[in-house]
Amino acid sequence: MISGGNPLNGTVRVSGAKNSASKLLVASMLSTGKSTLHNSPNKISDLILTKQICESFGSNINIHEDLLNVCTPEVTSSRIDEDLGNKTRIAILLSGPLLHRTGRAEIPVPGGCRIGSRPVNFHIDSLEKLGCKVSMQGGFFVLEADKLVGNNIRLEYPSVGATENILIASTLAKGRTIITNAAVEPEIIDLIKFLQKMGAIIEISTDRKITIEGVDKLEGADHYVIPDRNQAASFACAGIASKGDVFIENAVQDDLITFLNTVRKVGGKYEVKDNGIRFFYDGELKSIAIETNVHPGFMTDWQQPFVILMTQANGLSIVHETVYEERFGYVSELKKMGAEIELYNTCLGGSACRFANTHYYHSAVVKGPTPFHSAEINVPDLRAGFSYLIAGVIAQGESVVNGAIYIDRGYENIDEKLRGLGANIKRL
């Protein structure tokens, strides 16, 4: 429950990136040695779930505050528990470690947030090109390979998950693997740095090409997980939308270049410090047009909290979502709170995207400024959940946001952190 109407002020620290830490934990299974992750977001439910999956295969994992130690001396199974695997898309990334350690991987059809079809065909096609035999048996992908072999793989779309899967699987493959049209997100670079510390040979070119020279063995590694840029962007939007002043400790400018430019265009203010970034409201916000894209573009995970900013800006703003075809599933609940947002199945405000000429509503026109009022709303996915919290903070009256379990997937102690900024919020 949130009693809104108060600006957010103060300091909040973002945790390590869950989109990085969970992949590093999976990659650690390529070795029998001990790995240590610093700045690990150990209280975030997505990482807890990944930890449970790895432990089910024999990983020994110990955590203390933001430190995580992991060692997998022996892999005891090749089949991911269906209940665990259905809850997360991390499951498909275990293909490489399981194939290298056991020659077989049985992966349930992955889950995750309900924001589109999010097919795993890029993953499966890539694993087949590395010499893996793939079949479907009773809701499981069954993958088999005596030894993965390097290959040239061109991704139809620079998928983050598929790029991560190829990286993890190919480090111990025989020969060279070249990924073209690869994703180059900061979390990808963090994974590459971790694998390199483990003993991998990986080169990155400026044209989205990544080359992996297969090695015979990997060791454990010690690594600091990058700060979560999605948390930083989320708290930034909350601070500015509430007409407040928030310092985000641990926010990294390098990973937020496009976001910072967009904040400035909309009329928000920020100051980059050595240990974080201050975001604050300093006058009326202006309408703008944004188009989500893969890195270094405007990240799709920033779209939902940024739309709340747009509802408080003067004029009509445009959003063109080009990454997930059904990312606007959260809009209907925002309308209950007073948001004036219209959806379109055409490409607005930019060039035609891969969803052009489809039935998907992937563009939006946002009218502002609009006052928000209290309502009871239901969370459909992680980032929508945080945007609802922002809406509750700026709304007049008491709002109820159902579905905190989704928000916990990407934000630890979120109610405590928002209270620390002055929000009147409590769990029911």
Q: Which fold name fills CATH's third level, the topology of the largest domain? A: UDP-n-acetylglucosamine1-carboxyvinyl-transferase, Chain
Helices, by number, come to: 14
Which class do the helix and strand fractions yield? alpha/beta
Proportion of helical residues:
25-40%
**What is the correct CATH architecture of the largest domain?**
Alpha-beta prism
Measure the end-to-end span: 7 Å
The chain-level mean pLDDT equals 95
Total strands: the figure is: 24
Radius of gyration: 21 Å
Assess the beta-strand content as a share of residues: 15-25%
**Uncertain stretches:** 112-116
CATH superfamily of the largest domain: Enolpyruvate transferase domain
| CATH class annotation of the largest domain | Alpha Beta
Most strands sheet: 5 strands, mixed
The best one-word shape is globular
* Integer count of domains: 2
In short, what is this structure?
With about 425 residues, the chain is of the alpha/beta class.
Task: Characterise the protein shown here.
The protein is α/β, with parallel strands linked by helices and 428 residues long. The protein has 2 domains: 2-15 and 227-425, Alpha-beta prism (UDP-n-acetylglucosamine1-carboxyvinyl-transferase, Chain), CATH 3.65.10; 18-216, Enolpyruvate transferase domain (UDP-n-acetylglucosamine1-carboxyvinyl-transferase, Chain). Helix content is 31%, strand content 25%. It is built from 14 helices and 24 strands. It has helices at residues 18-27, 45-56, 82-85, 95-102, 121-129, 160-170, 186-198, 229-241, 257-266, 300-311, 331-336, 382-394, 404-407, 414-420, and strands at residues 2-3, 9-13, 34-38, 60-64, 67-71, 104-108, 133-137, 140-144, 152-154, 176-180, 201-204, 210-213, 222-224, 245-249, 269-273, 276-280, 285-286, 289-291, 313-320, 340-344, 363-368, 376-378, 398-402, 424-425. The strands form 6 sheets. Strands 17, 18, 19, 20 and 21 form a 5-stranded mixed sheet that branches. A hairpin with a 2-residue loop joins strand 7 (133-137) and strand 8. Helix 1 packs parallel to helix 7, helix 5 (121-129) packs parallel to helix 6 (160-170) and helix 8 (229-241) packs parallel to helix 10. The longest helix has 13 residues, at 186-198. The relative contact order is 0.14. Residues 112-116 have low confidence and may be disordered.
